[in-house]
Amino acid sequence: MSLSGTIAAVTDRIRERSKKSREIYLDRITRAARNRPRRSFFACANQAHSFAACAPLDKERLEEDVVGNIGIITAYNDMLSAHQPFEAFPEIIRAAAREAGGVAEVASGVPAMCDGITQGYTGMELSLFSRDVIAMAAAVGLSHDVFDAALYLGICDKIVPGLVIAALTFGHIPAIFVPSGPMTTGQGNDKKAEIRQLYAEGKVDRKTLLQSEATSYHGPGTCTFYGTANSNQMMMEMMGLHMPGAAFINPNTPLRDALTREATKRALEITALGNEYTPVGAMIDEKSFVNAIVGLNATGGSTNHTIHLIAMAHAAGIDLTWGDIAEISSVVPLIARVYPNGLADVNYFHAAGGMGFVIKQLIEAGLVHEDVRTVVGEGLDAYATEPKLGSDGQVVREPAPEKSGDEKVLTGWRKPFQADGGIRVLSGNMGAAIIKVSAVKPERWLIEAPALVFNDQLELQDAFKAGKLDGKDFVAVVRYQGPKANGMPELHKLTTVLGVLQDRGQKIALVTDGRMSGASGKIPAAIHVTPEALDNGPIARLKDGDMIRLDANDGTLTILVDEQEFNNRQIEHPDLSAHEFGTGRELFRVFREFVGRADQGASVVVGPLRQ
């Protein structure tokens, strides 16, 4: 089928809007690629430092300076389940590189924090900023300028977007992203959510809750719900930055290791030393980002990417907006139901057909650019496949299935679960916001109710425990949660509290200048409200009792208060000094001062392309 007119028009608009900034970016990486590999031009002392600790064979090869050298950027740490498997990857990569006649070295480690651990606590106020720290940490490793390609070992929420920003900043270097994969399936996500809600209501004890959580999160790999981490892996497939089908293979399996070896060998093939030079900054273009947005909507992915995608695109000189994301969403059907948009986890999703089936359906429907460059060559159709382990231990690929293995989890584009992807932009006299409705029942897409205003998520939780929220319809406004105020933490813990009230029959919504996540579910939530409260956005003028209308059907978020009276209200910002220190927050003062708006990527290191 020919390409959708809307997809083509949005792509053309992005390309035209980005023309000047993209030309500047491409010129910059073209100049950076000259005289490669750079180590050829180092003084001898500099060069000797670069391979002093290498194994004898690697040192011999680098001294001769005729082989490809891969820089490994790793987010390994022991504490986080998704990143623990990366401990073994460098040795696998080094061995595969030697076998292929090249060299691989760990160039740098980058931090990896877990929103699941910091959720609801002060550490979460570093979470969004960690993305930019990751980009900077990767840049430190690559700044030695001795690498011909890079392998990026990262998987979770801010790690992959940060690594993409780094990869595009060093856009003259070929890049392949190497995931660790999801943990095996534990307790079902629906049961986990049920126990959380029972605990919030005081119906089960803490021991029961902890046992439930430990049964859900039980081993190496990413969490198995479809949150930001697994949305990252979907996007890397859609953008052609993975080896095809790498996203959802479990850790510590022969196929996972074979895919890692394959990525290593492919990275050496696409350096400037060979005939298939594929600099990532030229490979990733407007079409690549449109494909990522299509995949995000088709699978019901994380709202965090409405921020990350903009920052990632800006790193490549591509001017992406919330309007582009919303317009694409309007024509992309939802074809996957993975928790929290359904009961299945990502392992079941993969078994039912996974990314190969999704990409095959999107190509067939004319909803993606098939003619894109990827790390394996031309064309997205290479990703409409399923990887298997061959008898010789190498990766072999079969065509993606024609039919879903379970149509309650994956369906074809002709009979979607929902006509659009469910990510929408809300606008009105409160500013702009994002809402994800793919997990929200349609009868809850419209709510008009009085505001209950909180300046901290703990205030709302305390009000719930005190019974002050019982028996009434309301819109919970949780403000001073934007990037400038306190780093824009996720407020995912509020989902359980508000879910209890909604299940009792109350009409509830959330409006916030903070974030939720890919794990957000059934509560209508207008998030990322911009301008934020600390920027004197309208949300800062709200008072208890103000009527708010949230209508996801027509994309509006409106304060139903006399305009003159509302605008005449004085803004008195609360004391936010408690957010300025503790848990390392004092080190991030400069981030809070200089961070950009949510709709411009909420970044310190990547500025908006339009002033």
From TrEMBL:
Its EC number is 4.2.1.12. It catalyses: 6-phospho-D-gluconate = 2-dehydro-3-deoxy-6-phospho-D-gluconate + H2O. Keywords: 4Fe-4S, Carbohydrate metabolism, Gluconate utilization, Iron, Iron-sulfur, Lyase, Metal-binding. Residues 409-602 form the Dihydroxy-acid/6-phosphogluconate dehydratase C-terminal domain. One of its GO terms (cellular component) is cytosol. PROSITE patterns: ILVD_EDD_1, ILVD_EDD_2. [4Fe-4S] cluster binds at C156, C223. Pathway: Carbohydrate metabolism; Entner-Doudoroff pathway. Residues 69-381 form the Dihydroxy-acid/6-phosphogluconate dehydratase N-terminal domain. Binds 1 [4Fe-4S] cluster. The keyword Transmembrane does not apply. GO terms for molecular function: 4 iron, 4 sulfur cluster binding; metal ion binding; phosphogluconate dehydratase activity. SUPFAM superfamilies: IlvD/EDD N-terminal domain-like, LeuD/IlvD-like. One of its GO terms (biological process) is Entner-Doudoroff pathway through 6-phosphogluconate. InterPro entries: 6-phosphgluc_deHydtase, Dihydro-acid_dehy_C, DiOHA_6PGluconate_deHydtase_CS, ILV_EDD_C, ILV_EDD_N, IlvD/EDD_N. Its cofactor is [4Fe-4S] cluster. It comes from the Bacteria. NCBIfam families: edd (TIGR01196). Belongs to the IlvD/Edd family. Catalyzes the dehydration of 6-phospho-D-gluconate to 2-dehydro-3-deoxy-6-phospho-D-gluconate. HAMAP family: Edd. This is Phosphogluconate dehydratase. The lineage of its organism: Bacteria, Pseudomonadati, Pseudomonadota, Alphaproteobacteria, Hyphomicrobiales.
